Amino acid sequence: EELTRMKLRRNQSGISPSTYYHELADNGRSYALIGNPNLGEVRGMLLSVENSTKNPVSAEIWFNELRFSNMDEKGGWAAVGRVDLKLADLGSITVAGTAKSKGFGTLEQRVNERSREDIRTFDFAANIDAGKLLPKKLGIQIPVYAGFSRISSTPEYDPYDLDIKLDDKLDAAGDKQVKDSIRNDAQDITTIKTLNFTNVKKLKTDGKRPKIWSLTNLDFSYSYIHTQQHNPLIENYEMRRTRGVVAYNYAPQPKYLEPFKGLKSKSKWLALVRDFNFNYVPSQLSFRADVFRQFGATRPRNVGGGPYKIPETYDKYFTFDRYYILQWNLTRSLSIDFTATNNARIDEPYGRIDTDVKKDSVRSNFLKGGRNTQYAQQLIATYNVPMQKIPFLDWTTLRGTYTTQYNWLAASLLAKSLGNTLYS
C-alpha cells in the first residue's frame, strides 16, 4: 500500500516517471521507484541483500514462499428490480434493473473471486400493437417493439494502474473536468437501442377474396438496432443495423376451364379429351424486396493521453436483394415453379456519410437498384401423365420433371479483367 501511495504522490508532483524517486518512511524504511511499475501485474520478484559492513559475512538466505495477510474481506451488495405492465390488448411494457457493488459474491466464492467492479444494468422493452389505436374497420396491423438496454461497469482499480484504486485517483484529481475524463476512460458502458415494425399489413375486413391489386397482399417490416460502447481500450464503438422489407404475395384459388366437360360418351378413351382443363390464374405470385444497411465505426483509445485521435476503422455494407416466385398449375397435371434471386450492393463512399456529396451518391446508387453482384433463377416443370385415363395403362403412374437453372456472378471490383461468371 505504501508503494502505491508513493507512486500516486510522485505522479501528482509532476516528476518524470523516468527519474529515480525515493522516500524515507517514519519507521526508517526507504522506498524508491523508477518508471511506472504496476503491482497489479507482478510476474516475478527479486530479493537483494546488502552487507553494510566492510567485513565479509557468510549467510544462508531462504526466499521461497510468500504469504498474504490482512486481505480485504469487505463485502458488497446486489439488488434486482422488475416491473411488468399489461396494457389490456394493446401490449405490454417491461422495465428491469440490476445493481451489483464491489465485493459482492455468493457464499461459495472465495475472496479473490468476488466482484471487483460496480455493475449497473437497465432494460426497457415495449410490445405494442399500434393498430389497436386506429379504427377497427380499417383492419390495420402494426406490431411495434421498442427496446433500450444499458450496461455500465466501473472497476475498483484504475484499468491503467491496476494497483491504484479508481476512487483514490479521482480524489487526487482536483479539477472536475479531469475527474469526469478519468471516470469516463475507466468505465465500460454499452448501450443498445432497438425499434422493430414486424409484418405491418392491412387485414381482410370484408370477407371477400383478395384481388391482385388488393392492399392485403402487401406487408412491411422494419428494424433498427444501434449499439454504442466505450471502455478503457476503445474510445468509441458504434454499430447501426437497419433493415426494411416490402413483400407482396398473391395466392388466388385456381380457376380451371374444362371446355369438353359436357362431352358424353361411354368410351373410356374419350376421358382424356373430356377431362382436358386449363387454369388461367397463377397459383402464387410473390415478390420481396429486402434492403439491409450496416454501419460500424471503431476508434481505439489513445492510452496515455494526448490530443492525437487514432483514426476510425469502418465496417459497413449496403445491400438490396430482390426475390421472385411464380407458381402456376397450368392444368391439374402440369405445373411450373419459377424462382429468382437478384442480389445487389449499394456502393458507398469511404467513411461516414456526413456530406451532401456523399449522401447524393448513395441516394443515386439506391434509386438505380444498386450494383448487381449475383443473379440466380430456377424453373421446374412437372407433368403427371394421366395414366389412369388410359384403359390398358390405368394401373401405372408416370411423372416427368424438367429443371433448368441460370446463375450469374459479377466479377470482383479488384479483378474486373477476369470478367463475370456465368453457368447454367
Key structural traits:
424 residues; mainly beta; 3 domains; two-stranded antiparallel ribbon; 5 helices; 11% helix
Let me know the number of strands: 20
Beta-strand portion reads: 35-45%
Number of self-contained structural domains: 3
Q: Sheet bearing the most strands, described?
A: 14 strands, antiparallel
Helix content: 10-25%
Radius of gyration: 37 Å
**Count of helical stretches:** 5
Instruction: Note the run of SSEs as H and E.
Output: HEEEEEEEEEHHEEEEHEEEEHEEE
The gross shape turns out to be elongated
Compute the separation of the termini in Å. Answer: 75 Å
As residue ranges, the low-confidence spans are none
Mean pLDDT: 87
Structural class: mainly beta
Task: Describe the fold and architecture.
The protein is mostly beta strands and 424 residues long. The chain has three domains: 1-67, no CATH class; 78-232, no CATH class; 246-424, no CATH class. Helices cover 11% and strands 44% of the residues. The protein has five helices and 20 strands. The chain has helices spanning 2-13, 166-172, 176-186, 271-274, 356-367, and strands spanning 21-24, 30-33, 78-87, 91-100, 117-129, 140-141, 143-155, 157-158, 161-165, 188-202, 218-230, 234-250, 256-257, 278-279, 284-300, 313-329, 334-345, 371-385, 398-409, 421-423. Strands 3, 4, 5, 6, 7, 10, 11, 12, 15, 16, 17, 18, 19 and 20 form a 14-stranded antiparallel β-sheet that branches. Helix 2 (166-172) packs antiparallel against helix 3. The mean pLDDT is 87.
